[in-house]
Design brief:
Elements (H helix, E strand, L loop, with lengths): L2 E13 L4 E13 L3 E5 L6 H8 L7 E6 L2 E2 L5 H11 E4 L11 H12 L3 H14 L15 H13 L5 E5 L7 H16 L4 E4 L3 H4 L4 E6 L2 E7 L1
Helix pairs in contact: 3-4, 3-5, 4-5, 5-6
């Protein structure tokens, strides 16, 4: 099985007013193709920090990180952006959709950044929106659809470029139970279809649906469980 994520001895520290805060302390982990991994732990344990490093939105203070065989150490900002665009889809708790754009235009953004032509974009966006059950809302704007529907659109945007890895940060955090359950079922279905997913969640009901759980405490991996 192909290794998508390989992290070795990852540390992350922040320097405040004469105080150094250690968010991550020597994390090593691998994620194989087709896995659904849940990262759990209490608030402030480093879950979201780990995900932002995995998503190349931040970089480690120490350690090595490879995504799809690419060593990310020493990459410049534009190189990191290019790797993220090609290999990573990111789903945020707050959806991060652009209100002035339609559902179609929001989902098309990653492909436009790649410079794909209009026919390729139209086909891929339509397909991604159909997969998440949002094909009927293609010309709506984010403020015209519900929170659950916005999260589905955000998942379509993460999917559209056919990335090696989908990162999901508290996907149900802003949703009620019914919509949260529906989003989780969608993620499970995408995983069955072959998507490799790493999800941060504090909700044990949802982390139990993944096929592997990694538990963090104080910036360290303290338990790992294959389900």
């Amino acid at each position: 099985m192909k290794t998508i994520v390989s992290m070795r001895d990852i540390h992350k520290s922040y320097l405040g007013q004469q105080i150094e805060t250690h968010a991550l302390r020597g994390i090593s982990l691998e994620v194989k193709q087709g896995e659904f991994v849940a990262i759990t732990g209490p608030s402030g344990c480093g879950k979201s920090t780990l995900l932002t490093i995995m998503g190349l939105l931040d970089s480690a203070t120490e350690g090595s990180y490879q995504i799809a065989g690419i060593d990310t150490r020493g990459l410049k900002v534009d190189q990191r952006t290019a790797v993220r665009n090609q290999h990573i889809g990111y789903v945020f708790q707050s959806f991060n959709l652009i209100d002035s754009l339609t559902v179609f235009e929001n989902v098309a953004l990653p492909l436009e950044h790649r410079g794909e032509n209009k026919e390729v974009i139209k086909a891929a966006v339509t397909d991604a929106l159909e997969k998440v059950g949002m094909g009927h809302r293609i010309q709506y704007r984010p403020n015209q659809i519900s929170g659950g529907q916005q999260q589905r659109v955000a998942i379509a945007r993460a999917l559209v470029g056919n990335p090696d890895l989908i990162l999901v940060d508290e996907p149900t955090g802003n949703l009620d139970t019914k919509n949260g359950d529906a989003v989780m079922q969608l993620l499970l279905e995408l995983n069955k279809q072959g998507a490799t997913i790493v999800m941060v969640t504090h909700d044990s009901r949802y982390s139990g649906l993944a096929n592997r759980q990694i538990q963090l405490l104080d910036g360290k991996v303290v338990a790992e469980q294959q389900i």
